[in-house]
User: Fold these one by one.
Assistant:
Number 1:
Amino acid sequence: MELFFQLTLAGLAIGSIYACVALAVVMIYQATDHFNFAQGEMAMFSTFIAFTFLTFGAPVWLAAVGAIAISFVAGLIIERVVIKPVENAPILNQIIVFIGMLMILNNMAGWIWEFTIKPFPSLFPSDWGVQSELIGPHHMGVIGLTLIVLFAIFLFFRFTRVGLAMRAAAANPDSARLVGVSVSWMLALGWGLAAGVGAIGGILVAPIVYLDPNMMSGVLLYAFAGALLGGVSSPFGAVMGGMIVGVLENWIGHPALSELLGFKMNELKLTFALMVIVIVLLFKPAGLFGRVVVKRV
Amino acid sequence: MRISTFLASAAAAVLMMGAANAQTVGVTDTSIKIGNTSPYSGPASSYGVIGKTHQAFWEAINAAGGLKMGDGKTRKIEFVSLDDGYSPPKTVEQVRKLVEQEEVAFTFNTLGTPTNSAIHKYMNAKKVPHLFLATGASKWGHPDQYPWTMGFQPTYDVEGAIYAQYALQQVKDPKIAILFQNDDYGKDYRDGFLKSLGDKADKLIVKMLPYEVTDPTVDAQVLEMAASGANVFFNVTIPKFAAQAIKKACEIGWQPLHLLNNVSSSVGATLKPAGLECSKSQGLITAQWLMDPTDPQWKDAAGFKEWSAWMDKNFPGNEKVDVNYVFGYNASTLLKHVLENCKDFSRPGIMGCVANIKDFELPMALPGIKVNTSPTDFYPVQQEQLSKFDGTKWVLFGQLYDASTK
């Protein structure tokens, strides 16, 4: 039973990282209707920026805040420079731009910081929170911070003018333009915010998986699964989806289940994640928590 | 009609053979062309450093006027290294390009087990020397089936066997857990280990867990192994996962005899990220054949000084922690040795030369390790020594284990 709790809590912790990246994916999806395949690499790059601050002797919280701020600006710039020119291009062009960015960021990070793994300190002190054998302080902090980020995003979209304008720009660009919202800049802002949220995800995952240019490759796949499972139109759904995928992944990987079923489930973890996506999309195309969006054609 | 075609083609074949004798493809009196594929992009791009080391190595030799070879001629080395992104179909494409368009004399240190598997048959069908592969799989040393392919480093299965013997010696009532990467590399280690345990394997192994390279962490596996009560942990993982496993085992206070595969034994690249205190408390054991560049005990060794000076010249500003530079330097030095002593530069002649290396010492291999090959022994490096981590460096102990005498 103790192992069950340990696996579940560890699953929640790793799930919160999927949740953070899924959240970033959803934010861009909401603004542009596309999955940003470079989201993971952007988060990785942000984490390297924080790492650079650390090597200059900055305390870890300051490095994190600095990296998030830089990522926000970089996200804005990426949208203006790279994404805007293909805004009205066919969807394939856009996807190719995303994949191109993925490769450029990955290799650039390797070129600047090398491919060897680097330790990254936790944002949370080791004597933080409830001392428990079931879950480490970092994992506890990860879950907490993810929920705080989600809450902050909720408040931002619900109660601020900019948030409202961004929602308007995404929901009905034409009307938004008529009431004076700069739709184009709202998209850029969405990219900036997503880059910032992604940076938080990267900074949280790095102490667990170690920092290297390929850090996010595995994470992004599960984050996509989480985002789809929870619903690509809902930030709350993305977080829940990420957590569910994390917990399921840990359960599925457990050998007791393999013994029960008589074949090795552990090797089917990825297959399972993809199966979940397919099944959910078959029966609930908008995801578990997503709203069904009806579009006029 | 048929007979005349046959005669014509036979005559053509004779002519071509004559031409081949006079001049091997890729070899002239002033140059030799060598091909290589490395993952400069893609998931294994950290190993791209090895290819870059080779390029710098041969450029430096060319800049000094070329290499005086065993037949008395001084040649420049045209080293053509292409990116295969660690993707086997890409390797096939690039190697065909090297052999058929670039017309290299042979390929050297092509990197990766799946990638080399994809060109194994092709190279042997084309009769192009496929030399000193940068992979520890055990299948590169079969001259009876594949006379044109030769490996380089000690094989994973041999290393696995060394650990198994050590565990049986050291632990009275061994309960063994194995964590391995679910591919050729992980299975080679695992199988070598299991084979060495023999009939007892079933009884001694309490947990055998795979992981996928795409997994974010191996934390769940480590928890599971610790819960099984294992007192021996054979850790067959690449650096990122090795560091995770060491850290996790240390965090939860699991203290098995921790056997760490050499793939992840770098102090700078694995143990520092895992935490030196943790690594020390785990009492890590590994088998080694390369000098770890971050290990202070080598700083006065002649080979290390040579490598270090070469690094400063060719990679100024490099921190010299990445063991891939060491690996590449050793492999290139071995090829240089072969070329310097080879008298026959036809393709069969080159194979004859690489299959006749006697007691050559690599600059950055552990003291006492010697490269030996023969027409029936296509495993150049077969010696390794166990070492224990003391908190800052690996301390070698016991004797040099030599797989070739077995």
Number 2:
Amino acid sequence: MPAVTMTVNGVSRSADVEGRTLLVDFLREQLALTGTHVGCDTSQCGACVVHMNGQSVKSCTCLAVDADGADVTTIEGLANGADLHPMQEAFREHHGLQCGFCTPGMVMSAIDLVNRNPNPSEGEVRHWLDGNFCRCTGYHNIVKAVMAGADAMGGGS
Amino acid sequence: MSDNGSNGTGFIGASLKRKEDARFLTGRGRYTDDINLPGQLYAHLLRSTVAHANLGSVDISAAEAAPGVHAVFTGPDMEGVGGIPTGWLIHSKDGSPMVEPAHPAMAIGKVRHVGEIVAIVVAETRDQAREAAALIDIDYQELPAAASIEAARADGAPLVWDEADGNLCYDWEVGDRAAAEDAIAGAAHTVSIDVVNQRLVPNAIEPRAAIGSFDPTTDVYTLYTTSQNPHLIRLLLGAFVLGLPEHKLRIVAPDVGGGFGSKIPHYAEEAIITWTAGRLGRPVKWTSDRSEAFVSDTQGRDHISTATLGLDEDGKFVGLKVSTQANLGAYLSTFATCVPTYLYGILFAGPYTTPAIYCEVEGVFTNTVPVDALRGAGRPEATYLLERLVDKAAAATGIDRVDIRRRNFIREFPYQTPVALQYDQGDYDATLDLALEASDWDGFEARRSEAAGRGKLRGIGISTFIEACGIAPSAVVGSLGARAGLYEVGSVRVHPTGSVSVFTGTHSHGQGHETTFAQIVAETLGVDFEAVDVVHGDTNAIPFGMGTYGSRSLAVGGTAIYNAVQKVIAKGKKIAAHLLEASEEDIEFADGNFTVAGTDRSKSIGEVALTAYVPHNYPEGLEPGLEETAFYDPLNFTFPAGTHVAEVEVDPETGVVELVAVTGADDVGRIINPMIVNGQLHGGLAHGIGQALLEHCEYDAEGQLVTGSYMNYTMPRAGDLPNFNINHNTTHCTHNPLGVKGVGEVGSIGVPPAVINAVVDALSPLGVTHIEMPATSERVWQAIQAAQAQD
């Protein structure tokens, strides 16, 4: 089995994986980082979004070996102790989550959006979230949270 | 106390941030698939690839010999284990009971829908189980399928069940047929409509999962499962399927990633996984993937209806007759039989005074995935039909769409409908007025003109609706065929140092109970919000419960908690009276303090709690401790109501419908947490808009699901939806102490007809009078072409 080494949430992790092991399964099963979720099998729902080298990826659609040598951040790696990341705090403040299942992917995706576009318009937020499904919120409060999170991350007009 | 039972500490009515969010936002939620038990094995469920077939040989030998495999079981291995039960016994018009076929956990002899479980493979790893399952050789001797209502009811149709002639489960009715027909026959105007309420896939984002285990030292089985109602699963799985007494079966429904009705039923998977864990003596875990969910989660809606409304000269509704065929799927799921009957036919008064109403429903077996509750469950189907019919009546009589609704509103309460329900309270004019103002209804024609200048067809649509929630008075539902009571249970444990644990039989899978229920307790008991934790989802921790569905958790479960608090206060008064050397009758309770009336002598709830657990100086004969449980059986359903307005723009060249604005004016009863209530409304609206414009679960004639993934089943995405304009006008439920009604299903019930009425309004200049859901661009374009061809 191939050996992989990657930095996950700032910690170097090495393991033997099967060649076919998906990054999401590696994170959930081998590293017990169960905050990253699996909601579909066609790369549509976005519950599995993590950051690889600072950019959002659907971890159900990459192999663990693809992440060899990469710097991976999951939802567990965002907060600084009890201090939530501004995007996490914005989701809490604006009720951008209900059942919580899509939430990790939403938050990780939203942060990547703001990294690329510090002042997204509402339309840009809605377009960006095309790859993240939520069945609970109707997206109304998620969009509000992402815009507020963008402001808090240092964007904003 | 104020009339809502509060002590005025301000927790009720405040948009407090949710207690549950910290764990969900940091990846510390604990969903079923996040749990792994020592020694756990993994199951793969092999499912039928055909819709209807006799099962010839099922050769499992190669799978049994595959690497890592511990066991392979098929239907006959579980023979003798009870079948999966259904929760409601419906009777037909002639008084005969419905046809209730056997429902084995795994197929025996025959398969009846794509996705039916044929075998379970248990192995060391998930991949080994899946690969071994591929080695099972099944001889499907295919039979013709009845994959739709029309196909199943056609002459000579293939029979899903030999005992169900014409694939009919029941032929049910409610209301007075003769009175409705007479009223329609004598009416000045009649208007009819044929509508399809299409099948939907619930699609909670968390796929279902289950982990079964057996502890040989206690003989206790434990099942972790993605359920909205763990006690109901314990009842059905224990008493009806596995034959286990309650004290030997523990059900845990931890964090659950959305339900929307699809996690109410007791599923065969729960029985198979629990049984297999017992057989093997090792924990067994199964997690559905999305493709599997599409063919195994219960689906929703799927009605074909025809209806006629009679009106007098003034546009008053005089009679309504509805005939519906409802697809039940191949097997009867837990609530399958009541959704298209007692959650549907009884809604046809809507907010109107129609004096004569009759509804008949054929429940039809088909070779499709079982149908059960989906957000709204029966009430969206009724509301859609009625509100489309009212719009057609307005067009036929030339009466304004708003005016015709207003002419027929119920204004005196309580109001007894001709279809069983008695509405306790409401103000339909107020929500209508609010919606018209908030949506700038009067300014619409200017917007239509402006859009026309851009080549767009703009339309506006309205829906005025009521729903029946808070299911339900046990004696009433019992008389209608329910096999369980539908009360709820709450326990309040005041700990020695004054913190509080609340135990509820409802289950939160997004609704925010941990916050809302804590607000009720903090307010009524006069303790700090942070000092209250709400526990749900574990049959070993909670006395009993019936779970969360039908917008019942606050109205029924919240009231149970409220009543338990009142019991705590009553006991606290005895303790305080003793400590204060006063008469119990003289003790008043407010803001967390027991006070001798007219004095400044008081004891806090904390002091009383400590005394209850350290009873050195204590009333004679009173039990120590401060913990009370209440079972609350509601006196009536609750009746949230409202008006929804949708505004669309249609591109006549492409048929693309853009949803420009959605306005809701809702009366959901007293609001405990406005932030959470609005979030529930948003979610319901999105679900309803999904039905109106996007979602459609389709089978081909052979019973193959052709919309079996997110690649071809259209889920609402952020870009499909506008921001929602939410408004409230509140009347209080009169028969529960909190005055609450329910909110979770409002949007999915109220908005679909508003959206379709808007699309039809937009297309009406072209002569289009109806369009089926979902109003996809293709369907709209076809309607435009057909209308233009007629010109």
Number 3:
Amino acid sequence: MNIEELEQIAESVRLENAKFDHEINVCMGTGCLSQHSDKLRDALTAAAKASDKNAFVRRTGCMGLCAAGPLVLIDPEETLYQHVNASHAEEVVASLGGKPVAALQCDLREHFDQQVHVVLENSGHIDPEKIDDYIARDGYQALVKALTEMEPNDVIKQITESGLRGRGGGGYPTGLKWGMVAKAGHDLKYVICNGDEGDPGAFMDRSVLESDPHRVLEGMAIAAYAVGASKGYVYVRAEYPLAVARLTNCLREARRRGLLGNNICNTPFAFDVEIRLGAGAFVCGEETALIASIQGQRGTPKPRPPYPAVSGLWGKPTLINNVETFANVAPIIRKGGKWFASLGTEKSKGTKVFAITGKITNTGLVEVPMGMTLRQIIEGIGGGVPDGHTFKAVQTGGPSGGCIPNEFLDIEVSYESLIQVGSMMGSGGMIVMDDTSCMVNVARFFLEFVMTESCGKCIPCRAGTAQMHTMLTRICAGSGTMDDLELLVDLCGTIKETSLCGLGQTAPNPVLSTLRYFKNEYIEHIVHKRCPAGVCDIQAPAAAHVDVEVLV
Amino acid sequence: MTTVAVDVKTLVIDGQNVSARAGQTILEVARENSIDIPTLCHLDGLSDVGACRLCVVEIKGNNKLLPACVATVEEGMEVTTTTERLTKHRRTILELLFAERNHICSVCVSNGHCELQSLAQSQGLTHVRLPYRNPQLAVDASHERFTIDHNRCILCTRCVRVCAEIEGAHVWDVMGRGIDSMIISDLHEEWGKSSCTRCGKCVQVCPTGALFDKSKIGSDHPKYPDFLPYLNLMREAQ
Amino acid sequence: MSKLKLATVWLDGCSGCHMSFLDMDERLIELADFVDVVYSPIVDTKEFPDEVDIALVEGAVASVDDERKIRKIRAHSKMLIAMGDCAVAGNVPSMRNPFGPQAILDRAYFENADLQQQIPCVVVPQLLKVVRPIHEFVKVDVFLPGCPPSADTFHTALTALITGAPLDIPALTRFGA
């Protein structure tokens, strides 16, 4: 495979598409599929066949606006329909070339126009399982370019220059990580794609894997070339069956085209990828736990150093990056590091995909340049809080992050700024809460999550999160005391400072951040025995205490 | 006589200038110099897992606390092993352990010989501020010689490691996650029906009364884990 | 100097701590120069006095009666000392916690009773669902672990508390000592 061949394929796809007057793209991401977009596609296909219109129906990945699904995009008119079901099929087909079906039309200019799609540029436009579709949109050009025109060091240089940072949460500079693995002297090295996305309300990686899996594979192959690895693993949750199925298919396609395997693009470079299914443990997103899991061991983290870059999978130097990180690689190589660095802020470059959920009008997946304010994302792109309620807080970074209140909505989204306000970037989940959410209860929810997801290896995380959960439950039930609160804060300090891995070290964050901004809610529960949001069920004080003469 | 070049690192532990070989852990070097760092999951002769977090120390210039059992020495490192912050954390960790399961020292076979109990004393813990969890846990007395009482287990995994690394039987392992983690024999068989070789090493390395010898009565059950380094030395010598 | 008022109380415990307290033997007489025992299972006072300087409490809080008592004691005492592992940590009485009070009553009054199987319900106070150490109910000033704390521990600790000398409890005693 070389550039000419890629262009031939792209040209043939374009010719094929040009045969049709209209393209009917049906979103078949998990969100829309759950609303039977597969039946819709069949109905549309049948309707198109039966009609005199020259239309072609394509299955695509996620179009982003999951709340409005199933979605249908008509090209070249760029008409977007929402909440379409099979019964609308004939109407939609009949309208082709004429006036769009007004009742179904989704006009959300604001939602789409403010976004910048780099990672998601193909999502919703290509059939995720057709490698030719991907190639027609410049797919695999970056790999061919890297292999035929660039030295491994040049690749790393471009990545470093781009300023790309790990999209899994920590924000470690990707170029630096690649450089470390490249320098590690060993004949056998590994590349691992971390697709163990597990935060509540996060589905960025899932969508990328489902909508544009080749993009991830291309990123991994480029990374492997840069660091000198010959074997890759995609670690993906078994709860993502669609992603697994599409990945499996894509691996086969890529091998058939000679884009994976031996002598890729007629060079000596060999690289192949294997899928490993995670059993759904959140902690396996931690790189040492993930490695243990791939090795068939209990998914528990190990103390670092040694870092995986030095001693990782089977003790060999290993590069681990997140799905979204790999998805950013191909455009950087194609367009250059400088182009990527022109997006975003000084220290946080490029774009970030966010999954916006909770009390928000436009639930779904968005991609915005770093540096956009939270307000723009939530009120502009997200459409604000629905049903006349008022915004209270947004949780970023999942259970490891924190709640950000209204007063900080104008901060620019970047790794540093989010940490400054007591939260973190995380993998990109954004849960919006309105005045019907009790912040103590929210903290308790996240603590329950980390408590059950703790691996149980180190004491502060194993027993500490359980104790925190007990205390928060007490406070929610109205039986907490101010001493409990003090103890809770104390415990947060120990868990944060002494836990073995990131899960434990960040487990107290939801409590600390809600305490920082919503302490009054804790006090209301403890002192006045009432839940301001009306969420917690606080019973009247137990009768047994009433007859005690003197209470302390 | 030939001399072997040794990569020597000099560092400061608690204000004391000490020298160490490259690759040594802070804990090893501290103990060689009679500086005590509390540990629970660490045991000389077994691999280190860095799980109990009691041995965390402060390193000058590093905001993070490092577990001394796995952190290796570096040239010019300045280590502090006892500070108010560390003592507070160590006490809290011990409190977490005492509150996690049912540790009733007065009726335990290991009363007076228990590492958890003596750590509480040495770290100045007089009471547990956290609410006791009081879980209902099993006691497996199916083995003809030994008993495992999960009420007293602190999940240090010394038994797991000694069985896998030294005895080579790998009878013990950990089941479940988080607060529900449990030590199990084989695939959660009764200990008496498991592939146990009856060597008793796990009993000797258990820091509490979770694993004990049925022939001992009352609290007359001191344990002797010191055989491990000796055994390893003898095996290496062969 | 007027003598300090000392009270000792027995909640859910075995009285072992009181025995050990008495094991101070002749040192009790020395102690009597500094304190008056105003309330104790070993003296005749029926009501807890209004103003007590030092209250030594043995036993965990296991019944509604214990809870009522400990709150009253706290309200009327300047210094509250948790005496022994039951008061400090729950100890043996708390071993029923994983099973609950009903299971314990059934075992004691039905399964193991030969005659007149019945669970006492008059006069005796109702059991709490879980047995807890006293500091989970009221503020405790000094913790003296041990099962029981030794007579020497009592002597050293009380002398220090009376005279205001420094007191290093972990050097004296431990859980289960």
